[in-house]
């Protein structure tokens, strides 16, 4: 049962992150996910100090606030001060993360937060974090419910906005010419990424969030020429990674989040190598056909 | 040499456009009649693409205004098509040729709804018109430059508009495609559509277009090709920048001066 | 105060180690960082610093001890592999750079996490403290580490010094460097190696997660103070060293405070200060320039009203009522009042009760603005094919901008004219 809950949690995070990640990598904005997942640290520490407990809601609010602060600062430094985007991302998230660590050290006695957990997450403890109703019924691990809701919201968002997300990612100029607001869809996507990152990091940690945001979509991107297929392959890969990652960790008695990241990398390397081996012939055939 | 159209369908009034406070187009003012194929011609860096993007509302002007069908562009977007430069998109994007052409229908379909069978039929019909019907299921990264341009053209056709703005549709395409495209544009024009094309080849400009807009940071000439496109106006447009204009632009950028007072 | 003296007397050998170590590492990181920033590879530094973790763990597994030299070699190898992997993925597939960076970063770090937990399970007593590499712990620096750091920093300094011109050219204009016959690929490889070396030097103190900041933050801040690359590198190094010192000092006075994060926060503070207040490029000076421009425009427009009234009535020296001024041109009344006061203070106007008049200086300035307005209108009609009834708005702006040199050139090009396109006189001073 423990294995089931952990794998389910991993799969929920991986699927949600992967779906959004598809659009992030197509928009060449992968590193924004990196920035947000690091920037949540000071938010959760402050939330903990204010609320005095590890309740989910204050944590999510705190993390969401600093996650949004990070996106805002990146945009602000880029637009108003003319700082190049990569530097704006790098400067902002390292600053927020450093503030988080300092806060943890400063309130070491009062804060029951380990700086490591932000990087690694605590997916192994998910099955213990149970949701017990008022009359004492045990409903199962709380993160599973939260992450299911997040997955639902993200899926509905992508389903309803599929057309617009696709067009604004592919050809923003044409989208604007049609009267579709590229800025609106940019911010909707960013909000979805923040929301997902924030609700996921507690379970799986910042590093695995980045791996899930980029790994499965990048692997799927190599395998298909169709956006819908790319989303579908991402979902399958995400579930596969969660499953094999857990068992790898079980065998090695090592970090679950780490193993899931390793499997993510393994999948990419596998697909990438196969593509390298068979590509020369394939691309040749295509060029000939086009020429003919 | 600026000749205005009698009943203009496109009206550009005193348009000044700046990048980072430095004006790249100064006081451009012209009109176009309906049913013409107009060429925007000028040397590199003359502001041709900028003019097109500003007309489409993608870049806000510092001053002046644009009217299409005597109304602001936002009110008539469903009647206006835009073909961006081919290089402006990532051709590795995971979509098929038909997907791209269907994007032309997005404006008609509206928010939150999907394209239907009728849109599919229109898209296939447009692909057929540009001679790409056989490629409908092909992934776009597998196309040659000329084929990519035809797909973009088909997408514009699928919008079923009255005015078409095209940014360098002949750049990097083979001779056969260029002839096919110009043939199609003539057909559209005779059906009453208005077509505005950014172009940089002086030789073919004379034969392709019946209205010319000669640009080099400012408007040099505008009017019917035989009157506006003369050796003298071409010499003016290609005879180098107006040095003073560039210097004033530099001062505005350096001192962060607004290009309009308010 | 007492602690400050204690600190800078360096009497405590631990303080000496930490300070020298911090300063060396932040100086060399900032120096390399300047080139990384200019080549728009800021996030590559982030990937490298995360990617050294598996190397450190592998070195530990291999040697069974926390030997600094072994660990640095291990870190160097995996850091370098990460960079090669990013380049290879982007070159050989349609995956774009940002995705490649994120993927390599998270997967390498994931491998490191697995190895780390594996080592922790193994029960080797020497492993405690291995996780200091993740967040850094400058206080653990010891004398022998310092020798290694000094060597690494010296190597970095010398190599960057030798290849300064080449790196500058490659960062600034790659194709041109190629055309000149510079071995651009090899130089890239060299900069890559230097980046990894700088990261490796820094991780013991700052940790892998925050090392990216020591590379790029000082450089990003320095970029705002100069356009000269030599000065930029110098300023970046100075900022980095200051951050290193400050970090060491803070954790000296408050031993519970971590050095690395404080170094990052101090250099971020310097960066934020630069983004906001650096002369010319900062946000605040830019806003100030805009406000000053608005004031100049308002002042010159007000002077123009006096000139136009003078033209209409035939005498320029008369005193004008407030109502007379507002009747001549559509203006915001509070703005006009404030502007009139400023012009009086500048001795361009004189005031008597609620009446104002031009001084000699005011008249000269007003005349010049009107003159520039009309000259520009003439330029637009004669050189830019703009109809005479369309030139006024444009000239309203340009009249405030033209420098005396541009004025002379304009006049010469127009053949020293007397009349503008509306057939009004172009005044001379």
UniProtKB/TrEMBL annotation, chain A:
Keyword Membrane: yes
Topology versus the membrane: Multi-pass membrane protein
Cell compartments where the protein resides: Cell membrane
Gene Ontology biological process terms in this record: response to zinc ion; transmembrane transport
GO CC annotations, alphabetized: ATP-binding cassette (ABC) transporter complex
Keyword Transmembrane set for record: yes
A Pfam family hit: ABC-3
Residue ranges crossing the lipid bilayer per the database entry: 6-26, 35-53, 59-77, 89-109, 144-162, 174-198, 204-223, 230-249, 255-274
Alphabetical UniProt keywords: Cell membrane, Membrane, Transmembrane, Transmembrane helix, Transport
InterPro entries: ABC_BtuC-like, ABC_TroCD
SUPFAM superfamilies: ABC transporter involved in vitamin B12 uptake, BtuC
Source organism, top-level taxon: Bacteria
Main location: membrane
Stored PANTHER family: ABC-TRANSPORTER METAL-BINDING PROTEIN, METAL TRANSPORT SYSTEM MEMBRANE PROTEIN CT_070-RELATED
Family membership noted in the UniProt record: Belongs to the ABC-3 integral membrane protein family.
Protein name: Manganese transport system membrane protein MntD
Organism of origin: Parapedobacter pyrenivorans
Automatic annotation (TrEMBL), chain B:
Presence of keyword Ribosomal protein: no
Keyword Nucleotide-binding: yes
Keywords noted in UniProt: ATP-binding, Nucleotide-binding, Transport
Gene Ontology MF terms in the entry: ATP binding; ATP hydrolysis activity
Annotated ABC transporter domain residues: 10-242
SUPFAM superfamilies per the UniProt record, alphabetical: P-loop containing nucleoside triphosphate hydrolases
Lineage top rank: taxon: Bacteria
Pfam families noted in UniProt: ABC_tran
InterPro entries: AAA+_ATPase, ABC_transporter-like_ATP-bd, ABC_transporter-like_CS, Metal_Ion_Import_ABC, P-loop_NTPase
Family membership: Belongs to the ABC transporter superfamily.
Designated name of the protein: Manganese transport system ATP-binding protein MntB
Organism expressing this protein natively: Parapedobacter pyrenivorans
Gene (UniProt): mntB
Automatic annotation (TrEMBL), chain C:
Residues that span the membrane, as ranges: 17-38, 43-63, 69-89, 101-119, 149-172, 192-221, 233-254, 260-278
Domain Iron dependent repressor metal binding and dimerisation: 359-428
One cellular component term from this protein's GO annotations in UniProt: ATP-binding cassette (ABC) transporter complex
UniProt cross-references to Gene3D superfamilies, sorted A to Z: ABC transporter involved in vitamin B12 uptake, BtuC, Winged helix-like DNA-binding domain superfamily/Winged helix DNA-binding domain
Keyword tags: Cell membrane, Membrane, Transmembrane, Transmembrane helix, Transport
Gene Ontology molecular function, alphabetical: DNA-binding transcription factor activity; protein dimerization activity; transition metal ion binding
Localisation: Cell membrane
Topology class, membrane: Multi-pass membrane protein
Alphabetical list of SMART domains matching this protein: HTH_DTXR
GO biological process: cellular response to iron ion; response to zinc ion; transmembrane transport
Similarity field: Belongs to the ABC-3 integral membrane protein family.
Protein name as it appears in the record: Manganese transport system membrane protein MntC
